[in-house]
Design brief:
16% strand, 11 helices, 8-stranded parallel beta sheet, globular
């Protein structure tokens, strides 16, 4: 049941901060300020030097409502490292059955990047419950609605191409959750991470408003 409890929390929190830090300190600062801004789900990408140590530190954070995941996981070896360091979920830019198997073994959600019906069906076959729509900037919000025609039970989280201005489109088309990355960090200047918190809060306030209106 752990796997589904984590997925439920991802869905409830709705916004996932995709964090690509320049180093360990940078990633931790971005993560903590995104969390202060109301984003509970934090995806630490393995393009970040020392990503496993970032995951380890954040997973020991005193507030247990923080959900720490690993992103840009390219193989099962990296997935296992992330899980043992405390990752609650694993995300990759592609589907890999080795990653799916290791995540299933540990009862951890695996969200692989998929961009076609074939990739999505293959992922579902290996026990994936939520696929990452990637690249979202290319496929667009309507892809979710289109894919739910032949595969109505699939759950989709877009990543890439998400902005505060197109949140409503993604939500109306049935996104399970939404990943946002560069939009959170584009205004960081000279070590001042307060803009991350402010931007995160704008996203969360917008989502709250749209959920009421929807």
């Amino acid at each position: 049941m752990r796997k589904y409890s984590i997925l439920n929390e991802l869905h409830k929190g709705y916004l996932v901060a995709v964090i690509r830090g320049k180093n360990i300190e940078d990633a931790i600062n971005i993560a903590k300020h995104a969390y202060k801004g109301g984003i509970r789900s934090l995806e630490i990408t393995f393009t970040t030097p020392g990503a496993e140590e970032v995951i380890s530190e954040l997973s020991q954070f005193e507030d247990q409502s923080m959900i720490v995941g690993a992103g840009t996981v390219l193989d099962s070896e990296t997935a296992r490292i992330a899980i043992l360091k405390g990752a609650h979920y694993v995300v990759s830019p592609h589907f890999d059955k080795g990653i799916a198997l290791i995540c299933n073994r540990y009862g951890i959600p695996y969200l692989p990047g998929c961009g076609s019906v074939t990739e999505i069906v293959n992922a579902l076959t290996y026990g994936v419950d939520v696929v990452k729509l990637f690249p979202g900037s290319v496929l667009g919000p309507s892809f979710i609605k289109d894919i739910k025609g032949p595969i109505p039970h699939v759950q989709v989280m877009p990543s890439g191409g998400v902005s505060i201005d197109n949140l409503l489109e993604w939500m109306r088309n049935g996104a399970f959750a939404i990943g946002v990355g560069s939009a959170l960090t584009k205004d960081i200047s000279k070590g001042d991470y307060s803009t991350v918190e402010k931007t995160a809060r704008k996203f969360m306030d917008k989502i709250a408003t749209l959920q009421v209106e929807k």
